[in-house]
Amino acid sequence: MDNPIKNSLLIVDDDAANLMELISILQPEYTIITAKDGVAALNIAEKSLPDLILLDVLMLDMNGFDILKELKKSDTTKNIPVIFIIGLNKYGNESKGLAAGAVDYILKPFDAAVVRLRIRQHIEIVNLKRELKSAVEAADVANRAKSVFLAKMNHEILTPLNAVLGISEANLQSENLSQGIRDDFARIFTSGKLLLGIINELLNFSKIETDKMNIMPVQYDLASLINDSLQLNLVRIGDKPIKFDLLIEDNIPTCLIGDGVRIAQIINNLLSNAFKYTDEGIVILSFDFKPGPNERDITLAIRVRDTGIGMTEEQLHALFDEYSRFNEKNNRAIEGTGLSLAITRRLITLMNGEAIVESEPGAGSLFIVKLPQVKASNDVMGRELINNLRKFHVNFNTY
Predict the structure, then answer these.
(1) Model confidence over 71-102: pLDDT tens digits?
(2) What does the alpha-carbon distance between residue 329 and residue 108 come to, in Å, rounded to a whole number?
């Protein structure tokens, strides 16, 4: 079996006797490099990158403090840990050395057991940091590979899926189908929409992980955004005995500047979550705002309240974790990847917003999202438009 690679130590001391003694104490366990002056020590450190440097404080050409100062200036050597070698009667050098950036000190004359223990402790720290760095790099490589794969699969998956959805939807509009065939097309269409939602969640999460999810503030119409979100999400109620209500503050600005696409995604995720985990009762979507420090600045508040299964304190703490799903045993039929709330949290963070969640088991949940926005005009939504939205009679163009 091959011998494991030994950690390397650079010992810097202009006293040959000290060098020989430290070598005899440490060489069986480590690869030892030595230097007798500051210039040689700096050159060797740059080229060899030892795992740890033992540095005598008192030397003729450069003292240990000056050498350490030079080591810290270099990007190559600044992170190499340094232990000072200090004479027993040189009081004050310990604190001065630690303040200068040394990680520890050993005293002369040497106690072999103490020297070995102190060196071993710091070498263990060095090795743990190296292992952690390797693990992080491996995880980054794996994440990048996963994201590249998902991006490449985007076209290959979505193109045939959109064809399936298009054909199914076209046939559902036909009046010449028997009820059995119509039911089959309806199941195909519903399953395809579910699959499309899962794929989009994965692609969005992949973009966020690789910092490719950008916020693009543009002018949008809040009433149009709300209407489109309602049209998309109310079908999720299905046959459940759920009452839905929409509450909007009368004087809320309707023309805003922000990323309307991402805000719609947040609303969709919160409503989808509410309808998933509410078997009966009420789901309420509400909007209000608070003026900001400047005339055009506001904080838009979006609230989604439901009377669903609710969450425990422990579940609340894990709510925005990736792939988080609660009460799997009793909710296996609930669709989705569990990524929607993790994506929602990332989007809120990207928009410098705030998320607040209140919940009790069996009593439902309240999600509050606060997002800084800018008024594009002084137009407000008004009671008539809000009443039309509540009756779901308004059809807007895209936002």
Answers:
(1) 999 999 999 999 999 886 665 677 888 888 89
(2) 65
Tokens of 245: 């209500």
Strand order across the beta sheet in which 52-56 lies: 31-35, 8-12, 52-56, 82-87, 104-108
Give a yes or no: residue 282 inside a domain. Answer: yes
Q: HSE (CB half, 13 Å, CA atoms) of 154?
A: 13
105 shares its domain with 147:
no
| Domain end call among 181, 209, 237 | 209
Query: How far apart (Å, rounded) are the C-alpha atoms in residues 20 and 11?
Result: 10
Structure tokens at 181: 């065939």
β-bridge partners, 242: 281
CA distances from 113 to 25, 28, 381 (A): 9, 14, 78
Domain that holds residue 148: 141-209
- In DSSP notation, 161-220 reads HHHHHHHHHHHHT-SS--HHHHHHHHHHHHHHHHHHHHHHHHHHHHHHHTT------EEE
* Integer Cα distance of 375 and 296 in angstroms: 5
Q: How many residues does the chain have?
A: 399
Render pLDDT for 126-176 as a digit per residue (tens, 0 to 9): 999 999 999 988 888 887 777 677 666 666 777 788 888 888 888 888 888
Distance (Å, rounded) from C-alpha 85 to C-alpha 94? 9
Considering the domain architecture, whether residues 286 and 375 belong to the same structural domain is answered as yes
pLDDT at residue 326 tops 60? no
Share in percent of the chain as helix, strand, coil (round to 5): 45, 20, 30
Which residues have CB under 8 Å from 103's CB, separation 6+? Answer: 81, 82, 83, 122
Q: How many other β-carbons are positioned within 10 Å of the β-carbon of residue 199?
A: 17
Please tell me the total count of domains within the chain.
3
